[in-house]
Amino acid sequence: MGEAAPLTPAPAVRVQGFGKRYRRQAAVAGVDLEVRRGEIYGLIGPDGAGKSSLMKAVAGVLAFEEGSIEMFGIRIDSEAAAERVKGRLGFMPQGLGLNLYPELSVEENIDFFARLRGVPAAEIAARKAKLLAMTRLDRFTGRPMKHLSGGMKQKLGLVCTLIHEPELIVLDEPTTGVDPVSRRDFWAILAELLRENGITALISTAYMDEAERFHRLSLMHGGRVLASGEPDAIRARTPGSVVELEAEPQVEALDRIQASLAQAESVGPRLRVFVDDAEPEAAVGTVAGLLKGLSLRDLHATTPDLEDAFVALLRRQRLVEERAVAKPRAGDGDPPGDDVAILAKDLTRDFDGFRAVDRASFTVHQGDIFGLVGANGAGKTTLIKMLTGILPPSDGEGRVAGADMHFAAQAIKARIGYTSQAFSLYQDLSVLENLRLYARIYGVARHAAGERIEQVAELTGLTGRERQLAGRLPLGIRQRLALACALVHRPRILFLDEPTSGVDPIGRRRFWDILVHLARVEQVAILITTHYMSEAEHCDRLALMHAGRIVADDPPAALKQALREEAGELLEVATDRPLAAMALLEQAGFAGVALFGRHIHLFARDAHTATREIQTILAGRGIGLAGVTPRPPSLEDVFVYRITALEQGEQRL
Amino acid sequence: MNLARIAALAHKEWREIVRDRLFLALAFVVPAALMLVFGYGLSLDVEHIPFAVVDHDRSALSRDYTHRFIDSRYFDYRGHVKSERELDPLLADSRIRFAIVVPPKFEENLMAGRPAAVQSLIDGTFPFRASTSKAYVIAINAAFNGELLAAYISRRFGVAPERAAALAQPVRVQLRYLYNQELKSTWSIATALVMLVLMVAPPFLTALGVVREKESGSIYNIYASTVTRGEFLAGKLLPYVGISIVNSLILWALATGLFGVPFKGDPLFFFLSSVIYVTCTTGIGLLASLIVRTQVAAMMLTVVMTIIPSVLYSGLLVPIASMDPQGQFEAHLFPAMYFTDIALGSFLKGVGLEQLWGKALALAIYAAVLWLISFALFHKRPRT
Q1: In terms of CA atoms, which chain A residue is nearest residue B15?
Q2: B185-213, pLDDT tens digit by residue?
Q3: Do the domain assignments include residue B177?
Q4: Cα-Cα-Cα-Cα dihedral of A298, A304, A306, A312, to 10°?
Q5: Where is the ABC transporter domain (chain A) (predicted)?
Q6: CATH (domain of B75)
Q7: Is A13-224 a CATH 3.40.50.1240 domain?
């Protein structure tokens, strides 16, 4: 393991014509890909895309039927062959910390993996110390694994995978369900390993916005690879431009665009449209032409991101289910009523001396989409439980749908709808039976139920699927059924707890189309939690939770503006030796230096001065600089910056 | 075989067991609890049957006859009632299980040399208890008849009462019970329970321990590493075999200490046989865990694979010899029967290696086969 790798040109992994079936069902078919030594290769796709099957087969822990897999030039076609490469390989299966031993401490977990992998006793201590320091777990060595946070579990999993210094690591969705700060940490650790050990990594993810982290990647969907290559090359496969704008009235604008362009969505106050095969200027012209007579603001073209490309690819390969035909118009006669839907004032909840939610205050109006983001354990679920009348608050007050939280928990339950990721649809009932059941549970009058069920089925695009069993529906459609069930009793407020986890980008877009319609047209107030930072952009307001407190509460654009004012511009540095450059820039004291594939991101107060400084530093070491470009910060940047600042503040105390 | 890796696996497993309170309780408390619950609850002795008497005759002879029941340790006298009609509610309520009705002119008829019919009513809801009660009634009645006959012979022929008694019963049965002189069913049951508990508890623990890793996904650590199949099975199961050996000692102590079962055999032989037996039953758990994916399914499967054969085909309830040929054949397929023989032989008969080596060998073969099948079924590169 420690010796030099043989000087063969064989790639780390070569997959040809790979196919895997479970019973008769094909999970993956016809996959070709090649992972070169020393690169981070990504598999990106939604749940059920076949990523896990492929990764397990590569790691030699799953037998397969079709095609071939070679690792370091060794063909993995039998259990015995797989055994021969396992010493050079580290595998971390899917599920946060699920492969670790909850009863054992951090150190005991690492020791077990080290002894299992036959790491010489003399080396264990040194390697452990290094990895623990790198992951900042060194303060928690005695803590049982079950008491670690999600991010820490993930890092411990990584340490355990790395303790025998493998040449190739296969990590199955290591960042799913982890908060953005821990995710950044994870990528930083990986960058360091890449720099110091020259490790090769095959990593899968469901987050499209992590694509930039990979050198090369494969986009997967429905058991097939849609496209492979560098992120830029994949984007180039679907020529076109993205146009962003604000339009008034938004709903009409979106309808007009969607009538002729297939790939358009509303993102918070803005609209985002992908125009196929169009240069930026032409694209802007096309969109402006469609929206004649409406008031438009801030109309501009921007580069498509990988998610745009993914959706465009699916669309071109005709893998997209057709859009729901017509959405029901507004005017089902509900009076807007009290404009304030949720009013929370100093809401607090204690559990045995532990404060889960600490004086949370905010307001949600009818027709607003209010996003709640934060790490696991930040208090989101407790807050939602209080707001939905499941859990009484220890202190503070709140009104939900006009009912006082302290005295009218039952009234609240009748006036709201609730959907969670783990929403318990009855899998053995059909779509229609599920809807009828919920109508009865919520006491919808029998004569009105039929009509209302038809309405929500149409709204959520379930028309024509009424007889199908809930358990047989694809994940995205099942989530829409859950939403439909939450809507049968015409709630004025909707609570959605991570409703789109694992759903593919197209499914997520459809879901959001429905939410936007509910908010804009039917004036329903929506409170939603999500782990997808790209999704948080859709919210009108975003509250950031940390350690039980709401540490920011603003529209996404305002949050980004505040970040610019506090931290400066986000710059993207392109160089020929990113790893070396990254170390130099960190030493020079730049804030937020992070590796994104071949690029480096950092913050700078003044872009102009910083660019000159970067040029000087890199030139001094003979590192080629391809360019420094300002980039708009993402919400993830905001989140990471805020939380890191808070954590540093806590440590100083 | 890399001993360091086996030790690492066994060490990890042991720590997990010790830290998980529920699992630890399952490992050590449940076997002892099973032994106590069954040991006290499962007595097959029929004694203290509550009964009542209807005496229409009220003579010296009828009093003499009914006292034979009243004085017996098998019956509990609950009183006289006036008529049969009063018996019905008592029987219906289960306040009595048996009643005896002496007809009018009982003494007069017998003295005149005419037969008399005594009615006995037995609650037949539990056939086993009813048939045992019937046997007691017949035995007491036969003894009474014998004495009447002896008294008649003595009066009629003027011989001594002892001689008359011998004439009245020319053939007598002389009974001597071997190994369990007092015929205490507790002794045999406690012994058989050692077999039963060691058949149920080890597979349960083992199956849960292995399937737990499958369920959580930590089995992938094993799949993806260089640990060999044999090393994994050995390291993983060593703690469970160890726990079960400790349990076999605890059960032995409970049987001899608490239930007063004598231990007459060879302690070393019995201990070694127990080790073979728990290795065998641990193997059953291992096999079950390789077939299923969830802990719930593992529990169901081990129940089916262990409790049913060990209750039905071990000789615990029905002697193997009195089964039909098919049942006997099936009994030989399960390890429970062999260990029942070893346990009964060691505790009550005081026999050892010389008489029981065949059974111990059968268990060892059984264990080896189970482990080999498991080894063949376990793959580090499964199809699903």
Answers
A1: A104
A2: 788 888 888 999 999 999 999 998 889 89
A3: no
A4: 110
A5: 13-247, 342-572
A6: 3.40.1710.10
A7: no
